[in-house]
Amino acid sequence: QVRLVESGGGLVQPGGSLRLSCTASGRSLSSLTVGWFRQAPGKEREFVTTMRSSGGYKYYADAVKGRFIISRNNADNTVYLQMDNLKAEDTAVYYCAAGAGVILSSLRNGAAYNYWGPGTQVTVSS
User: Fold this and answer.
1) 97: closest CA among 122, 118, 75, 125?
2) How far apart are CA 83 and CA 69, in angstroms?
């Protein structure tokens, strides 16, 4: 069993930056695909970014490409999401997810991920 806990959310002005962390316990993340999803009020959960276990493949939603970066530190069993040039439309609860054996065609599909954190709120507002 893998337990994921996100941190680093908060209130930031448009154009600002935040760095989210997702720390895992119970199993090493090094062999899992890890990703970030978000859910804004009144909207469905949407894919943000993902990274394969090898770390060599990263995939981003068009809405965040060029502004967000996913990374992982296997020594700390932690996944990060660096978010720059934040916009009001980035406001959402951000969830960390991890999965075993996630195939390429399912990387954007939350149902393919086995483990989820409780989420952390990100609010972008002036």
Assistant:
1) 118
2) 7
With vertex at residue 14, the alpha carbon angle to CA 11 and CA 18, rounded to the nearest 5 degrees, is 50
pLDDT higher at 107 or 117: 117
pLDDT average, residue stretch 57-86: 96
Buried b / exposed e over 48-78, threshold 16 CB at 10 Å, is: bbbbbbeeeeebbbeebeeebebebeeeebb
